[in-house]
Amino acid sequence: MTEYAAKGVIVSWGGTTIGQITSFSGMALSSETLEVSDLDDTAKQYIWSGLYGADEVSVDVHFDPGAGAPSHSVCAADVLTGTTRVLIVNYAPATVTYTANAICTGLSPSGAVGDKLTATITWQPTGTVTL
User: Fold this and answer.
1) Cα–Cα distance, 131 to 119 (Å, whole number)
2) How much is the CA Rg of the chain, to the nearest whole Å?
3) Which residues contact 61 (CB under 8 A, 6 or more apart)?
4) Is residue 27 in some structural domain?
5) With contact defined as beta carbons under 8 Å apart, do 125 and 102 qualify?
6) Which of 11, 58, 73, 104 is 20 to 30 Å from 26 by CA-CA measure?
7) Contact present, 103 and 86 (Cβ < 8 Å)
8) CA 77/CA 90 separation, integer angstroms
9) Does residue 129 sit in helix, strand or coil?
10) 117, part of any domain
11) Tell me, what CATH number does 38's domain have?
């Protein structure tokens, strides 16, 4: 089995690369099933429902609310408007890319005395995911 470093993973939103990412999670794919067991069965039976989706994607960033990281301010504006854009997660070390339309659902800044300003940005993919 080949192992890859997280370094080099690129997340872009509407064609703009999200800057200063320190960690990420998602785009976890999942598929729905339907139970089709009947009273004659001795074990549960399932079929694929034909529906799949991607779970929420999130990134933690060194937050720059000014002009230094324009991708952060674009995400903040999109949370307020519900704008749908193309979200791309490029697992560059493995040359695998997930692409989906998504809605930016959150930008949550945080900080503390003597600490840096950070933020978590979240998106909810909607519709088809392409690999």
Assistant:
1) 28
2) 18
3) 18, 19, 20, 21, 22, 69, 72, 118, 119, 120, 121
4) yes
5) yes
6) 73
7) no
8) 23
9) strand
10) yes
11) 2.40.30
Domain-embedded: residue 4: no
pTM of the model: 0.84
Residue type at 99 in one-letter notation: T
**Total of domains in the chain:** 1
Other CB atoms within 10 Å distance of the CB of residue 102: 27
Burial 19-37 (b: 16+ CB within 10 A, else e): ebbeebebbeeeeeeeeee
CB-CB contact of 57 with 11 (8 Å)? yes
What's 18's DSSP letter?
Answer: P
The boundaries of the domain holding residue 78 are 10-130
Task: Examine residue 1 and state whether it is found in any structural domain, yes or no.
Answer: no
